[in-house]
Amino acid sequence: MGRSRHTCPTCHREISWEGNAFRPFCSDRCRLVDLQGWFGERYRIPQDEFPDSDNPEEMNGDHTSDT
Fold first, then answer.
1. Which domain holds residue 18?
2. Which of 17, 32, 41, 51 is the most exposed place for a label (fewest CB within 10 A)?
3. Cβ-proximal residues to 27 (8 Å cutoff; 6+ apart), any chain
4. Pairing state of beta strands 14-16 and 5-7?
């Protein structure tokens, strides 16, 4: 079986995951650069709408049915 090759999500360098302790990144530096992006809010998970802050059940994700 051939060695699988992947691309580092940070620097886009081609790497092998076999024996790579930092996968999916190529190095600890690229891993930390990605983590910095999350802490700096460079990456965001899209949200369709914000919950109604007056309804605490919507704030924690619990929904009740009035049927």
1. 5-39
2. 41
3. 8
4. antiparallel
